[in-house]
TrEMBL record:
Keyword list, A-Z: Nucleus
Residue ranges with Acidic residues bias: 68-87, 144-153, 166-175, 747-756
Domain of life where this protein originates: Eukaryota
One family name in Pfam for this protein: Noc2
GO MF terms held by the record: histone binding; transcription corepressor activity
Biased composition (Basic residues): 723-732
Subcellular location: Nucleus
Chief site of localization: nucleus
Similarity remark: Belongs to the NOC2 family.
Protein name per its UniProtKB record: Nucleolar complex protein 2 homolog
GO CC annotations on file: Noc1p-Noc2p complex; Noc2p-Noc3p complex; nucleolus; nucleoplasm
Biological process per Gene Ontology, one example term: negative regulation of transcription by RNA polymerase II
Organism: Timema monikensis
Coiled coil spans: none
């Protein structure tokens, strides 16, 4: 019974392996039985090729296992036979043509099955194949055989007569439709871009927007080396197509989004998330904004950056819908706001302002922190080139801080406290590194920022409690090193106090810091260096020793004292206490005038003193007319406001002087030489003419023999030098320059040569 079961199993297995015949099995057994590696060279040559060993008719272990019904052995034999080669058991050669036809039919069936599967999985691509490559869908075995025959016949390649040159001009050809590339990518042409533009203007379906976004992503992949090209559906080749795709997205994508989501100009403030079709375009918009940020990071042209930032400004309502994109957008905008060109900075600030006003609660704290850090980092160095950028950052940052006083108070309190800590360490430790942490441009510009912010929010009560600690930090910084080397820093800080007092209407004692300079420095000291212009303290904090020895240093100090005393007292000129407030100032100026011997310095300060005394007499005459008491603050404030509107002498003088000063500063900021601001006399050094040049004809290359015979008193003739000089002076007076030929114009307009003859002394006599 067991033998019968084994025979049945063997018959069943033999059906699954149709090509394994007895002849094939016999050859496999003979190959396994013959081990040529164990034979020597003589035994190998003594054996014939057709000789076989004993037991050739015996079966191998695999054959025995096959007879016993082992499935794995049957599969193994089938694999070995197929790897060894296609042999026929009867002919002992290659497989027949019938077997090849069976294999080709199997391949065609599998190909048709895969095409049917493609029709279900990707109908758009299947439709594309039907339109462009019908031969691929109508696959036939005969076509493949004919192709093989043609390949065998035409083995040599014959180039065409006219070769095509690959360039960007091929994008403009009419036949530049969709072309399939390697990996299933579609080549974008200008014709496709124009078709997409027309669809964006008319179509209201989000399919076109998704296609355009994919094309924009492929365009960035064309210029980016890190892009994964396998994930792209489109391929961009050539700069003209790249520019066309970017221009299409920048100009037409935002209007198409507004039309599809039904965000009209009236309802533009509505959140796009509430639109019905937002879900269909959400992924595409998120991908597009990310690609736009990448493009902003890779562009360096200010013009292109301006265009892209204007486009991003339109997309700000869509950016706020993605919290993950807010941080990278803020980072990129802050970087452009602090480091880019002037026009780019302005547009980046407008984008930041719109982004903050749209999502103020979520983004305001992040923006305030990042913008302040960027402001401080870019204020490390001060020069005429960076002055305008620093001023723009300070004013724009002040506007951002003024949006929310409650949120700004936390940041201002923290940063003013940090400045106070640096100042305390510098005062207590008196080390070089701590002093340098205070006396630098970053510290000064930080104080300038908070002074401008408190002045801009003077009518609000949230930030006014920070006024006193800020003033104390500024005064402590002035008194840290009160030497002449840091007079420039002193004038910067006193100017901040003047602006703060003027904008907040709070009295701050500033005059002692200005008058202290007159008492601490000797202006009668003779200078060691001469400078034609006074020093400009705008971009200077610390003066060098060579600058202290110039006369321009003393001129600049007197000019600054004159300017700031006038500016500060003009703000206080309408006060009822002005005559009493200026008494110490007048006394110190009179003391300086007695000791100073420089007339220019005395003239300026005497003029200031006269204007102060004139205004004090005016206020005294006006307050004699009042009838209210000194404790009536409302009446005093009303009287001061009336007097300020009517005008006082010191304010009138300062207004006229300030107009001229502003004009001079504007000219000095430009090219002084072209504007002719300073008419500096030019010293022309006239060369003395030698006596030999007058005596006799001019010799171009005189010999050395002429000067050898001259002694200490003159030439070889022994004539004294003084007499010869007198004679040459007379000859100089009577000698004329001899031009070669001078062309003059006659009455009829023709040029006539005027020949100048030599002039003789006898003719004159």
């Amino acid at each position: 019974m067991k033998k019968m079961k084994s025979n049945k199993n063997f018959a069943a297995k033999s059906k699954t392996v149709p090509r394994v015949t007895s002849g094939t099995r016999k050859r496999r057994v003979e190959k396994q039985k013959t081990n040529l590696g164990l034979l020597s060279v003589e035994e190998f040559f003594s054996r014939g090729i057709s000789d076989s060993d004993d037991g050739a008719g015996e079966f191998s272990d695999k054959d025995l296992s096959l007879e016993n019904g082992d499935d794995s052995s049957a599969d193994a034999i089938d694999n070995e036979v197929s790897s060894e080669g296609d042999y026929d058991d009867n002919k002992g050669g290659k497989i027949s043509e019938d077997d090849k036809e069976e294999v080709n039919e199997r391949e065609s069936v599998s190909h048709k099955h895969s095409l049917k599967k493609l029709k279900n999985t990707d109908p758009e691509f299947y439709k594309f194949l039907e339109e462009n490559d019908k031969n691929l869908l109508q696959f036939n075995v005969s076509d493949s055989e004919s192709d093989q025959d043609e390949d065998e016949d035409d083995k040599t390649h014959v180039p065409p007569d006219k070769l095509e040159v690959g360039s960007d001009e091929s994008d403009f050809e009419e036949g530049g439709d969709l072309k399939e590339r390697k990996g299933g990518k579609v080549q974008i042409t200008l014709k496709m871009v124009s078709a997409w533009r027309e669809q964006l203007l008319v179509d209201k379906s989000p399919a076109t927007i998704r296609t355009v976004v994919k094309a924009f992503h492929a365009a960035l992949g064309h210029v980016s080396a890190e892009e994964d090209n396998d994930s792209q559906e489109f391929k961009v080749g050539g700069g003209s197509v790249f520019n066309a795709v970017v221009q299409l997205c920048v100009l037409e994508l935002h209007p198409a989004l507004k039309r599809i989501l039904k965000l009209t100009s009236v309802s533009s403030k509505i959140d796009p998330v509430k639109a019905k079709k937002w879900v269909k375009v959400k992924t595409a918009i998120k991908s597009y904004i990310g690609d736009l940020l990448r493009l902003l990071g890779g562009v360096s042209s200010p013009h292109v950056l301006s265009v892209l930032l204007k486009h991003l400004h339109q997309l700000i309502p869509f950016v706020t819908c993605f919290p993950n994109l807010s941080k990278p957008v803020l980072k990129r905008l802050v970087m452009l706001w602090s480091c880019a060109e002037e026009t780019v900075r302005v547009i980046a600030f407008l984008c930041l302002l719109r982004l903050i006003t749209t999502k103020q609660k979520e983004l305001l704290h992040q923006v305030l922190k990042k913008m302040y850090i960027a402001y401080v980092n870019n204020c490390k160095f001060m020069s005429p080139n960076t002055l305008s950028g620093i001023n723009f950052m300070r004013r724009s940052l002040t506007e951002i801080y003024a949006l929310d006083d409650a949120a700004s108070y936390q940041h201002v309190f923290l940063y003013v406290r940090q400045l106070a800590i640096h100042l305390r360490n510098a005062i207590t430790l008196q080390k070089r590194e701590h002093l340098q942490s205070v006396y630098n441009w970053q510290f000064t510009h930080s104080l300038h920022l908070w002074v401008e912010l408190l002045g801009a929010t003077a009518n609000r009560s949230h930030l006014q409690p920070l006024l006193y600690p800020l003033v104390q930090v500024i005064i402590g910084t002035i008194n840290l090193i009160p030497t002449a080397q840091y007079y420039a820093l002193r004038f910067h800080l006193t100017q901040l106090l003047i602006h703060l007092s003027k904008n907040t209407n709070v009295f701050i004692p500033i005059l002692p810091f200005l008058l202290d300079v007159l008492n601490s420095y000797d202006f009668n000291k003779h200078h060691k260096k001469v400078s034609m212009k006074p020093l400009d303290f705008t971009c200077i904090l610390r003066l060098s020793k060579s600058q202290l020895q110039e006369n321009g240093f003393k001129d600049a100090v007197i000019e600054k004292i004159y300017q700031q005393i006038l500016e500060y007292l003009s703000n206080e000129a309408h006060r009822i206490s002005f005559p009493d407030m200026v008494v110490p100032t007048v006394i110190q100026i009179k003391t300086f005038l007695k000791t100073c011997k420089v007339s220019n310095y005395c003239k300026k300060l005497r003029q200031v003193m006269e204007k102060i005394e004139e205004n004090a007499r005016f206020i005294e005459n006006e307050r004699r007319k009042v009838a209210f008491s000194l404790d009536d603050r409302k009446a005093i404030e009303a009287w001061e406001s009336t007097l300020k509107e009517s005008g006082v002498p010191l304010q009138t003088f300062y207004a006229s002087w300030n107009k001229l000063h502003v004009r001079q500063v504007a000219k000095s900021a430009t090219d002084n030489e072209k504007l002719g601001e300073y008419n500096i006399p030019v010293l022309k050094k006239f060369q003395k003419r030698r006596s030999e040049e007058v005596e006799g004809p001019v010799v171009l290359f005189p010999s050395d023999d002429e000067s050898e015979g001259e002694g200490a008193f003159g030439s070889d003739t022994g004539e004294p030098r003084t007499k010869r000089n007198k004679r040459t002076k007379k000859i100089k007076q009577q000698t004329l320059v001899q031009p070669d030929e001078v062309k003059i114009e006659s009455d009829d307009g023709n040029d006539v040569e005027d020949v100048v003859e030599d002039l003789r002394l006898s003719d004159i006599e």
